[in-house]
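The records we work with from here on pair a chain with its fold. These numbers are not coordinates but entries in a learned vocabulary of local backbone shapes. To see the layout at work, look at the sequence and tokens printed below:
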Amino acid sequence: MTVETIPAVMARTHFGEIMKKSYKKGSRFVVEKSGIPMVVILNAQDYARMVEAGEERFKILDRIKSKLPDLSENVVSEDVAKAVTAIRKRHA
């Protein structure tokens, strides 16, 4: 999978080509305006996977939060993020 940063003008003028490249090759594009990243273009399948993964993460956080009602959502999220980072370091 490739990620290409392109200016908004290019995205407008070559939108059909960008869609085709994203759909067929899985390319992703970060569209910038005045050097500021504004939007990302990715194919529908990648988007669906990202949404599904996000929903699963929220379900997990909700389960953890229900077991620890006195902790704020931010504290739970931070603790989970730290635990995931530690596990990833061990497996790297």
About this structure: The radius of gyration is 18 Å. The mean pLDDT is 88.
